[in-house]
Design goal:
Layout: E1 5-9, H1 13-25, E2 29-33, H2 36-46, E3 50-54, H3 62-72, E4 77-81, H4 86-94, E5 99-102, H5 107-125, E6 134-137, E7 140-143, E8 148-151, E9 154-155, H6 160-171, H7 179-187, H8 196-209, E10 219-222, E11 226-229
Parallel strand pairs: 1-2, 1-3, 3-4, 4-5
Antiparallel strand pairs: 6-7, 7-8, 8-9, 10-11
Length: 231
């Protein structure tokens, strides 16, 4: 099995060293960067399987780095924020981050999230040779073998987590899931009750698959319960 390469972007030298040490203990190949410009260069050069990205960075902040990287590649991004501020969290998710953690955090929890994110990427790659695994929901096609989705034949540009969420809902078409269930099934761990992540990803998906995202007809809200994908 190939060792996953992780890019860690953090300007606090002590935290950067701790992250590198603990990730290497888990046998990950770790590349580091200490500012936003260096992060972009490393991401383009190293093509990591996952990026751990601090928000507060010199030269170019983490939000700008995330926005640029998301336009260029679909690598999963885990953002770190020093403030327990909902605005920072939501901004990060809205510009394409897949997950976030607030400092100070448990290294054990960070490693668990990293493992869960990488397992999702690995599962997407491992499909039986020659087998096409697709879900058809009206004129929406989800191809799990290629980790791609198409609307009326046109490829959708989805982040890894957007695809995972869409694929899960397509596999369970017509069934309603609350936010906690979606966090468990799609994110793969207990998200300690912070359900805003789901709402943001639902909103992003609607912008890409609905004719009118303000009046969704495919990915609908069941008031007081959760979300479902209509057939």
């Amino acid at each position: 099995m190939t060792t996953a390469k992780i890019l860690v972007v953090e300007d606090d030298r002590n935290l950067l060293a701790a992250l590198k040490y603990n990730l290497q203990k888990e046998s990950y190949d770790v590349v580091t960067a200490a500012d936003g410009i260096e992060a972009l260069e490393a991401a383009r050069r190293e093509k990591p399987e996952l990026i751990i990205l601090d928000v507060m960075l010199p030269k170019l902040n983490g939000f700008e780095v995330c926005r640029i990287i998301r336009k260029e590649m679909t690598v999963p991004i885990l953002m770190l924020t020093a403030k327990n501020d909902e605005v920072d969290k939501i901004v990060g998710l809205e510009i394409g981050a897949d997950d976030y953690m607030t400092k100070p955090f448990s290294m054990r929890e960070l490693l668990a999230r990293v493992g869960a994110m990488l397992r999702r990427v690995e599962m997407a790659k491992i499909q039986p040779a020659g087998e096409k695994i697709t879900q058809q929901v009206s004129d929406l096609e989800i191809d799990s073998a290629r980790h791609q989705a198409f609307l009326r034949g046109s490829k959708l540009e989805l982040s890894p987590k957007e695809f995972d969420l869409l694929a899960f809902l397509a596999q369970n078409k017509g069934f309603v899931f609350n936010r906690e269930q979606l966090l468990e099934k799609v994110w793969g761990y207990d998200y300690a009750g912070d359900t805003r992540t789901v709402d943001v990803h639902i909103r992003w998906l609607r912008q890409k698959i609905e004719n009118d995202p303000a009046k969704p007809e495919r990915l609908v809200t069941v008031r007081g319960t959760g979300y479902k994908l209509e057939g």
